[in-house]
Design a protein that fits this description.
Blueprint lengths: L2 E5 L8 H14 L4 E5 L5 H5 L10 H5 L10 E2 L5 E4 L8 H5 L8 H6 L8 E5 L6 H9 L2 E7 L8 H14 L5 E10 L4 H14 L3 E7 L2 H5 L7 H4 L4 H14 L7 H18 L1
Length: 275
């Protein structure tokens, strides 16, 4: 049975989408069939994975019952990596969900149909604590919580933890924390070291050992529609997300070069044909 990770923090700018995109990509490179579900109306995980959602079914159609889950899952050009994209129409989904029966369970009920078909399902939650995020909390087995290495790093996280406790009590008693991820670390500053200490004192063993550094390549990659491994596999950001994926899997990742190359050649051929 597959495992579902929700990547959540209602505070924006924490590296949530970057984490969802790159963790799912490295799980795929590890040979694990992985589905990325974009629940953020901004659709950054969709575009950051190089997927054009225009004219295609999105997670909005799925949770509103206008399209089946099976016809809304698309392969990306990355190995073992699939996506249910987001579209701007999801912006209205928060309001429309209010009128649905079992509105908090819409995503869980849909994903339960295909959970066994994937090793991992990674959900990018929106930066809010509305109904879309509650759907993510109900559907997830565990949460990955990115926290930026800055002042007020823990601000707002208490609200997420409170919401998580309510969801555990009423809707998803098995919900747990896979790990708290420190992001955008700048080890030249005392602030980063102070935040690391503060977060580890608060979350203790639930904090990932991996810390994602500030890295310009991580910021550039989404504009090229590429996970970091395919944009610059040698940069410090790529190495950090590879380490994180290994920490999640609890095993070393041996990337299948043949699979990687075949995907690159397919992508090249598609570009050449469309040119």
């Amino acid at each position: 049975m597959g495992q579902i990770f929700g990547v959540c923090n209602q505070k924006g700018g924490t590296g949530k989408t970057t984490t969802a995109t790159n963790v799912s990509s490295y799980l795929g490179l590890a040979g694990k069939k992985t589905l990325l579900v974009d629940m953020d109306p901004q659709g950054n995980a969709t575009s950051g994975s190089g997927f054009d959602s225009e004219g295609k079914n999105s997670i909005y159609e799925v949770i509103m019952g206008n399209a089946s889950l099976e016809e809304s899952i698309y392969p990306t050009q990355w190995p073992n990596h699939y996506i249910i994209p987001a579209h701007i129409s999801l912006t209205g989904g928060e309001i429309e969900l209010v009128n649905l029966e079992n509105r908090e369970l819409q995503l869980k009920e849909e994903l339960s149909k295909i959970k066994d078909d994937f090793s991992y399902i990674v959900i990018d939650a929106p930066p809010s604590l509305g109904l879309l995020t509650v759907n993510v909390l109900v559907a997830a087995d565990k949460l990955i919580i990115p926290i930026q290495c800055e002042y007020y790093a823990l601000e707002g996280v208490s609200k997420l933890l409170h919401t998580m406790d309510l969801v555990k009590e009423r809707l998803n008693p098995a919900l747990g924390i896979e790990g708290v991820l420190l992001t955008m670390g700048d080890f030249r500053t005392r602030l980063t070291l102070q935040v690391i200490e503060e977060v580890r004192n608060f979350f203790k063993e639930r904090t990932f050992n991996t810390i994602i550094p500030r890295n310009i390549k991580l910021a550039e990659a989404p504009s090229f529609g590429q996970p970091i491994h395919f944009y610059d596999p040698g940069c410090v950001g790529a190495k950090a997300y590879l380490n994180l994926a290994e920490e999640i899997l609890k095993e070393k990742i041996e990337i299948d070069k043949k699979s990687e190359q075949s995907k690159e050649s397919v992508a090249f051929d598609e570009k050449r044909i469309s040119a």
